[in-house]
Inverse folding.
């Protein structure tokens, strides 16, 4: 069974047009950022008149174009109805808008609609975070003896964090075991590592734990053993199954995620829970094509030059269609988040939820969007400023964020990875630090809600050469002090 979103038509008007009655309905008058407006018109049988009807959205007397830049949005006849959908731009500003249905220049319907944002839950801010992400005992990652307990590991972490002025520790708590057995969905070590959070919480450290959602690390058809659907990717011009990621359409996987998050969220010493790899797989998400065609394409009156029904080829060639499909991927991932959070709330888990998000193009290349995620139930977006292979790529990402994304009315935490290869430059330590400083101070209109360093394991065993662990710790301390001073100016007001 798939997770779907069903619309309820909440507004209906009967109007007279050219001596016959039209029934015009709107699916919703209150729109969150993962929603769209769908207008349905019944009773119009003249095909020529069908082509004259369109929808426009207005704000303060001006037209508000849709995602594809259209001022006048025409629809398509679906059976005996006309369907017209208005797809809002990413991050459309909240407020009251006027939705109007026209035939040529004659208004058939005009009504107010409201774009809304979900109020996010707050943690202690600014968040100054260190993470741990690895499927090994945390004591081993710290170089402790096998017999040492979690309390001793917590002491080491606490000292490291207090020296750097950090106040929050977040750990990997759920990673899939790949093909071991049906009964053992999750590795036991990350679950055991959660115990260190109990001791850190007693010391006043804010704590969180997250789950790797759709990265399941399968390699072949055996992944079906769990009832998971593979991610469908486009490689070398054709669609192929990729078992490294599980499809967001897999209801079994979604249920597994809810179960592990319910377990983690039930721990009194854990302040918040998190989602990682909450997106479509790399180069993937094409298993959504069938539903994308039915739900969206069938109602859009645009010639995307889809020859012989080959939507994949058209997506590669047509920028507007590609943009529309990526938007739809973000919508579908947001619906999954909404489902997960709703299930958790129904089970009494009401802790804040965070999500790791890709930094390149604000995650929109992979089915992520800051505003959609916020409205679906995410309280903090942890933006990963990773995998920028040169400075020009980093600057391009920063300028994209500055022009097309803004963190007003959203809670966002920027972070960088402890990795020499992913922080290329003359000095990877300086690149690591400067990228985080630059994004916080230059590429953000509003101060973020914190910052994070990823992660403790990489600090010891990652690609840190030619530098030593001590060099990275020193740079983390310096960077944390700079960012703390910058953010405290806003939080002390």
């Amino acid at each position: 069974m798939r997770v779907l979103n069903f619309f309820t038509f909440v507004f209906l008007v009967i109007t007279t047009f050219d001596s016959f009655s039209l029934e015009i309905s709107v699916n919703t008058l209150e729109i969150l950022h993962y929603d769209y407006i769908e207008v349905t018109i019944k009773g119009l049988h003249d095909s020529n008149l069908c082509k004259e009807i369109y929808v426009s959205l207005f704000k303060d007397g001006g037209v508000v174009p849709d995602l594809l830049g259209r001022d006048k949005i025409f629809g398509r006849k679906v059976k005996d109805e006309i369907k017209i959908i208005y797809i809002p731009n990413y991050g459309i500003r909240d407020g009251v808008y006027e939705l109007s249905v026209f035939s040529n220049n004659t208004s058939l319907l005009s009504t107010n609609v409201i774009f809304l944002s979900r109020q996010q839950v707050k943690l202690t801010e600014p968040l100054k975070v260190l993470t741990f992400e690895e499927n090994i005992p945390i004591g081993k990652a710290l170089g402790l003896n096998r017999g040492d307990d979690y309390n001793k590991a917590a002491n080491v972490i606490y000292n490291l964090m207090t020296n750097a002025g950090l106040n929050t520790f977040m750990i990997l708590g759920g990673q899939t075991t790949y093909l071991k057995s049906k009964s053992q969905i999750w590795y036991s070590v990350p679950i055991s590592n959660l115990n260190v959070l109990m001791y850190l919480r007693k010391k006043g450290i804010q704590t969180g734990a997250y789950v790797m959602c759709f990265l399941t690390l399968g390699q072949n058809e055996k992944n079906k053993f769990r009832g998971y659907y593979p991610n469908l990717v486009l490689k070398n011009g054709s669609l192929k199954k990729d078992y490294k990621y599980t499809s967001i359409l897999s209801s079994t996987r979604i249920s597994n995620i809810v179960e592990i998050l319910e377990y983690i969220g039930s721990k009194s010493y854990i302040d918040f829970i998190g989602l990682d790899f909450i997106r479509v797989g790399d180069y993937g998400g094409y298993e959504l094509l069938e539903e994308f065609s039915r739900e969206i394409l069938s109602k859009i009156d645009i010639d995307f030059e889809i020859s012989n029904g080959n939507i994949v080829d058209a997506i590669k060639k047509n920028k507007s269609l590609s943009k529309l499909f990526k938007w739809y991927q973000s919508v579908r991932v947001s619906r999954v988040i909404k489902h997960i959070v709703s299930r958790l709330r129904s089970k009494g888990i009401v802790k804040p939820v965070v999500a790791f998000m890709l930094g390149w193009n604000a995650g929109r290349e992979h089915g992520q969007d800051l505003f959609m995620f916020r409205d679906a139930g995410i309280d903090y977006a942890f933006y990963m400023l990773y995998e920028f292979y040169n400075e020009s790529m980093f600057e391009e990402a920063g300028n994209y964020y500055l022009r097309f994304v803004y963190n007003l009315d959203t809670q966002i935490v920027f972070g960088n990875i402890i990795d020499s290869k992913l922080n290329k430059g003359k000095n990877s330590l300086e690149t690591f630090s400067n990228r985080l400083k630059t994004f916080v101070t230059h590429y953000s209109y509003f101060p973020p809600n914190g910052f994070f360093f990823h992660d403790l394991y990489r600090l010891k065993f990652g690609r840190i050469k030619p530098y030593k662990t001590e060099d990275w710790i020193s740079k983390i301390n310096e960077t944390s002090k700079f960012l703390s001073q910058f953010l405290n100016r806003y939080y002390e007001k």
The radius of gyration is 24 Å.
